[in-house]
């Protein structure tokens, strides 16, 4: 058994990327199994409740034909999926004024998408294709550029301060800074906005608000929840502008956090394990080095003053039988001659 452990470790090192890909596929399958097991009973229960309401309505209103009711519900659901207001409460809702269109543009360029805004006309769909083909790469490039500009201030300076003034080894300073940065991001980008959402939407739980903030910053939509659904039109427009600002700032911070984590020496060593040293930004850190004492790894070379001064005159090669040359100039510094063995 003890002989198998080194062979397994060597096999994982030689096939690191294949093992990572296999683990990722297993992770996807695990997610699908969990969501199926958790959500399937809820879906079945909701479906039975709707069917019971439908049967109760037909029993209490015998003059309504079942086929006509099914046709009405089908058209209403189709209009709702097309973002057309079919209820009287939503009759005054405007979907494509300038503020709503600007919100749609930003959430599309950041690949978040919108649950409420989709182009209806063929012209708008064609324009959206060409517009996003150029806009999405440009947006990602701009966010990455801003993150790179913030990296010296947000990451390099604090790590240098911890390493120089606090005397921490570089590996520990980078790791502590990345951990503190992660805590700040979780607090100010997720927990605090979730509390604000709970204050604005009393019917939402904290988990609903946290999930809303998470799916926005992960650019996967809005999680089926629409913030400010019962608000006035002016309040909704203001909320859309604030949401776009929150999205853009959050993406820049997340990009900066990603670059900060990738500069931690331990992470660089793991990256080289999978992709080789050319993919790591910090050279000279290996997995074996991470187990050493940080005091030993962070020792700086100390240089002492030279014990001799090399003269400007060239050295003369001496034979083993010849003696040292006479020092004719008393002001000339003594020359160290190499000895042959």
- Major β-sheet, in short? none
As residue ranges, the low-confidence spans are 280-341
Summarize the amount of helix as a percent range.
55-70%
Write the H/E string, N to C.
HHHHHHHHHH
The radius of gyration over CA amounts to 34 Å
- What's the total count of β strands? 0
What does it look like?
The model is unreliable at 280-341 (pLDDT under 50). The protein has helices spanning 4-14, 16-60, 66-81, 98-109, 122-164, 170-200, 206-217, 233-262, 265-275, 294-297. Helix content is 63%, strand content 0%. It contains ten helices and no strands. It has 341 residues and is an all-alpha fold. α5 (122-164) crosses α6, α5 crosses α8 (233-262) and α6 crosses α7 (206-217).
Quick structural gist:
By secondary structure, this protein is mainly α. 63% of the residues lie in helices and 0% in strands.
Structural features:
341 residues, 63% helix, disordered C terminus
Q: What's the arrangement of secondary structure elements?
A:
Layout (H helix, E strand, L loop, with lengths): L3 H11 L1 H45 L5 H16 L16 H12 L12 H43 L5 H31 L5 H12 L15 H30 L2 H11 L18 H4 L44
